[in-house]
From TrEMBL:
Pfam (any one): Methyltransf_25
GO BP field: methylation
Annotated keywords: Cytoplasm, Methyltransferase, S-adenosyl-L-methionine, Transferase
CDD domains in the cross-refs: AdoMet_MTases
Family: Belongs to the methyltransferase superfamily. Tam family.
Role: Catalyzes the S-adenosylmethionine monomethyl esterification of trans-aconitate.
Residue ranges constituting the Methyltransferase domain according to the UniProt record: 34-123
Any single GO CC term annotated in Swiss-Prot or TrEMBL for this entry: cytoplasm
EC numbers: 2.1.1.144
Reactions catalysed according to its record: trans-aconitate + S-adenosyl-L-methionine = (E)-3-(methoxycarbonyl)pent-2-enedioate + S-adenosyl-L-homocysteine
Protein name (Swiss-Prot/TrEMBL): Trans-aconitate 2-methyltransferase
Lineage: superkingdom: Bacteria
Length: 256
């Protein structure tokens, strides 16, 4: 799946707000090494480094385009290309951050113990994931995918994200692993000037990627036209033309 740092950072302030809220719940302690998994263009890494200025920082991402943007933003930070599911090594970290990335990684029952294993004693795994697969924007993606001439091409697109798990599931899974757990859900309401087209631009940087990547240029344009028509109906604009985009997000901080 391809990622575009330019597309993603169109809404950088809105996308960065959740990681600010997440890091505010990470406990102050002696921190010497931190990792940002799925670091994207480095916006979350920048906050992580600012929160723990004395720590060695690692950023990991599977997109070369995202890493190029991250290295330009933070030239003194170590950024490496790799998949979260395959992340290995002997280094232990005091904080492992995964902001809006684990939803793209399968098999969380296996993933969580592997991530906790990378923590130093007392280390913290801080995670934020979109919790919006049941929101109209995602329902429309699946509907347009299944009803258009591209249906065969996009049969697997709706399965690109890991199955939706609730707060209780993550609490239970992490407690079984011996972690102390703080878990919560926040629904943001992002004001997006520009109406339905702004909502489409938002999701072109994230959730729409698995649906758009397999299509040719003409199919992509038709898909987006149908999708935007549905978005306009599902998210009516305010009097000033702004759309309020509800966006539920699930957070947890697990301490080893």
């Amino acid at each position: 799946m391809s990622w575009s740092a330019r597309q993603y950072t169109q809404f950088e302030d809105e996308r960065t707000r959740p990681v600010r809220d997440l890091l505010a719940r990470v406990l102050e302690r002696d921190v010497t090494a931190v990792a940002d998994l799925g670091c994207g263009p480095g916006n979350s890494t920048e906050l992580l480094r600012a929160r723990f200025p004395g720590a060695a920082v690692l950023g990991l991402d599977s997109s070369a385009d995202m890493l190029a943007a991250a290295r330009q933003r933070l030239p003194g930070v170590e950024f490496v290309l790799g998949d979260i599911a395959a992340w290995q090594g002997s280094q232990r970290y005091d904080v492992v951050l995964a902001n809006a990335s684990l939803q793209w990684v399968p098999d969380h029952r296996t993933l969580l113990p592997a991530l906790l294993e990378r923590l130093a004693p007392g280390g913290q795994l801080a995670v934020q994931m979109p919790d919006n697969l049941d929101e109209p924007a995602h329902q429309l993606m699946r509907k347009v995918a299944s009803t258009g001439p591209w249906a065969a091409k996009l049969r697997a697109a709706g399965e690109a994200r890991a199955p939706r798990r609730g707060a209780a599931w993550y609490y239970g899974a992490l407690r079984e692993l011996g972690a102390r757990v703080d878990v919560w859900i926040t629904i943001y309401h992002h004001p997006l000037p520009g109406g339905a087209s702004a909502v489409v631009e938002w999701f072109k940087g994230s959730g729409l990627r698995p649906f758009l990547d397999p299509l040719d240029e003409g199919e992509r344009a038709e898909f987006l036209e149908r999708y935007e028509a549905g978005i306009q109906e599902a998210y009516p604009a305010q009097e000033d033309g702004t759309v309020l985009l509800p966006f539920p997000r699930l957070f947890f901080v697990a301490t080893r």
